[in-house]
Design brief:
Elements: E1 9-13, H1 18-29, E2 33-38, H2 41-55, E3 59-63, H3 69-83, E4 88-90, H4 106-132
Parallel strand pairs: 1-2, 1-4, 2-3
Helix pairs in contact: 1-2, 3-4
Length: 133
């Protein structure tokens, strides 16, 4: 197997399920260690065990809310403490409601925007400030 990400560390928001989980798996199968981060720690812990089992790499599950910069700061600090580096950021956290736009409340739409846009900015800024800068 080609290990193009050998010994790198990826931080993946929304990494406990769906597309984020598969991104983590692919990176880990190619030699990367991963942090998977989202709001549901139980789901993350279960996913981390499975990811490590299939890849032989380390996977750190961390609870964050991308709308809360303090939780991102704590997670990035824990990542750097555990791995000593952070090479790749995947902003995958997303809010969505499976309904027609006409059925979406104003508050639900605001929540989607906060997670998808502000969350991406918040996480990118923290990772940049804490490590990439």
């Amino acid at each position: 197997m080609f290990f193009c990400f050998r010994d790198q560390v990826a931080f993946i928001t929304g990494g406990g399920s769906g597309i984020g989980l598969r991104i983590a798996e692919i990176f880990m199968r190619h030699g990367c260690d991963a942090v998977i981060a989202s709001r549901n720690l139980d789901k993350l812990k279960e996913a981390a065990v499975k990811l490590s089992a299939v890849s032989g790499r380390r996977c750190l599950p961390l609870r964050i809310d991308v709308r809360q910069p303090e939780s991102i700061i704590a997670a990035v600090d824990e990542t750097l403490k555990e791995f000593g580096r952070l090479d790749i950021l995947i902003n995958n956290a997303a809010g969505n409601f499976l309904c027609p736009a006409s059925a979406l409340s104003f508050n639900a739409f605001k929540t989607v925007l906060e997670i998808d846009t502000m969350g991406t900015f918040n996480t990118s800024k923290v990772v940049y400030e804490k490590w990439l800068k």
